[in-house]
Amino acid sequence: MSGRIRKLRRCLAVLALIGGAVWAWYGAARTRETGTPAGNTTAAPARAAEEVRFRPVEPIQFHLIPRSQPTPMSPSFRPPRPQE
Q1: Each residue of 25-84: pLDDT tens digit?
Q2: Cβ neighbours for 67, distance < 8 A, ≥ 6 positions apart
Q3: Residue 11 · residue 5 · CB < 8 Å
Q4: CB-CB contact of 30 with 46 (8 Å)
Q5: Is the pLDDT at 12 greater than 80, yes or no?
Q6: Dist. CA 45–CA 52, nearest whole Å
Q7: What is the pTM of this model?
Q8: What is the pLDDT of residues 35-46, one digit of tens each?
Q9: Three-class secondary structure of residue 34 per DSSP
Q10: What's 73's DSSP letter?
Q11: What whole-number distance in Å separates Cα of residue 72 and Cα of residue 15?
């Protein structure tokens, strides 16, 4: 049983180290993003309900794309003939 506890402790320690590194990296990225002045050592507080908005993506209109070859669904499609 003590072997399992040691293994569990090791895994938790590794997870804590990784979590701390990610937290520090994220905090440094947030500080750089907000652009705090060099003289001000306090980091800008993160907004509680920050919302990320993306531009709306326009749908691709396939009927406007010119085709050099007919597709299998087009009426002018002819399957290739086997070579003799």
Answers
A1: 888 877 766 655 555 555 555 565 677 788 888 777 766 666 666 677 777 777 778 876
A2: 74
A3: no
A4: yes
A5: yes
A6: 17
A7: 0.36
A8: 555 555 555 555
A9: helix
A10: T
A11: 53
How many angstroms separate the CA atoms of 61 and 75, rounded?
19
Contact call for residues 76 and 70 (beta carbons, < 8 A): yes
CA distance 32 to 44: 10
Strands (E), the chain: none
Distance between CA atoms of residues 77 and 82, nearest Å = 15
- Angle, alpha carbons 57-61-62 (nearest 5°): 135
Burial status of residue 25 (CB atoms within 10 A of its CB: 0-12, 13-18, 19 or more): exposed
User: Which residue is associated with the tokens 């002018």?
Assistant: 76
Place of tokens 């990296």: 25
Amino acid at site 8? L
